[in-house]
Specification:
302 residues; disordered C terminus; binds 2-acetamido-2-deoxy-beta-D-glucopyranose; globular
């Protein structure tokens, strides 16, 4: 009899002790400049702990080659400075070490693919040329759409710029509001300041484009539960859905097209280079059969 009571009280004692740690209570901690204040992600490893300068150099080994188009622009410190703003929100700090590294590889998979000047016979292979550009070189239109909310600023040009290239006044407007920098008046900032360029790209990765829709981050790290509609549209958690969110039907729902395959190839290359390995790419890697969250052209970058 006595023994049983003792057992019960031990169990209760454990529950009480485990309570606060298991709940969703925000942690307060201060782990250097990356993470100040309350956040459930604080105390977890930071991006700098898992992804160091030599890895950045491995991923983007050709970015300062003589034929590259943004020599000297992109660097590790700019990425880390920008990422630090989003680590308290879960960027690169969600899940355990493997998920954290995978998210960095996934984010950079998009960036590498969109800023590459690699082609079939390029030295080092076509996947070695990420961060070759920081802007669109020969825009063939002015990307100024009529908008009440984000009217084009006189003299400003809204061609592609940045790490996940931003096109159109409306997208510069939305993202500028998001990162609290007047990109509508100064779209050129994204080709002048690599920290801002990464900040804009990570904001895009972390932010749902519409109410009730997930962000690329959410679908990748497992924060998102597909609705019945999503399932009927073949939208499932994984890397594939990140392409759906960032490019919609420009990459998804078209079968195995280059625009999709190229992003996947970069992601997998980076998984290998970071030592995670492409065998951990995760389920639902492609979006070949997915219907777009937001059909036709209007989903920002590409
Ligand atoms: C922090 O890291 C641990 C293990 O490394 C992980 O289980 C946990 O989910 C992480 N915290 C958050 C909020 O993702
Ligand atoms: C680039 O942008 C960052 C973030 O807004 C800012 O702190 C920094 O001073 C800028 N650098 C330059 C050279 O303007
Ligand atoms: C589900 O999809 C149908 C048909 O595409 C649409 O009419 C409906 O509004 C969607 N429901 C939700 C909750 O999104």
């Amino acid at each position: 009899m006595d023994k049983r009571w003792a057992l019960v009280s031990v169990v209760l004692g454990l529950l009480v002790m485990a309570g606060p740690a298991m709940g969703k209570k925000e942690k307060m901690c201060d782990k250097g400049w990356e993470c100040r204040g309350p956040s459930v992600y604080c105390c977890n490893a930071t991006i700098m702990d898992l992804f160091q300068v030599y890895q950045f150099e491995n991923l983007f080994s050709k970015r300062n080659a003589p034929v590259a188009h943004a020599i000297g622009f992109w660097d590790y410190q700019a990425f880390i400075t920008a990422a630090a703003l989003f680590e308290p929100l879960g960027f690169g700090t969600t899940g355990g070490k493997q998920m954290q590294m995978k998210e960095i590889a996934a984010f950079f998979g998009h960036v590498g693919s969109k800023t590459s000047c690699g082609y079939g016979v390029a030295t080092g292979g076509p996947l070695a040329w990420g961060l070759c550009y920081n802007r669109e070189l020969s825009p063939n239109q002015d990307y100024c759409a009529e908008s009440y909310e984000y009217p084009c600023s006189p003299g400003a040009l809204y061609h592609g710029r940045g790490a996940l290239p931003v096109y159109w006044n409306t997208n510069y407007g939305v993202i500028g509001e998001g990162i609290k920098v007047d990109l509508l008046s100064h779209p050129e900032y994204l080709e002048q300041n690599a920290t801002l360029a990464f900040q804009a790209a990570i904001w895009r990765w972390m932010t749902p484009m519409k109410k009730k829709q997930p962000s690329a981050h959410d679908v990748f790290v497992g924060n998102w539960k597909p609705t019945k509609n999503d399932t009927l549209s073949n939208r499932l958690p994984g890397f594939g859905a990140t392409m759906n969110i960032l490019y919609g039907d420009l990459a998804c729902g078209q079968g195995f097209v280059d625009s999709m395959n190229n992003v996947i190839s970069h992601y997998q290359q980076y998984l290998d280079l970071m030592g995670v390995g492409r065998q951990f790419s995760g389920d639902n890697l492609d979006c070949a059969e997915q219907l777009a969250f937001n059909p036709t052209g209007k989903t920002a970058s590409t």
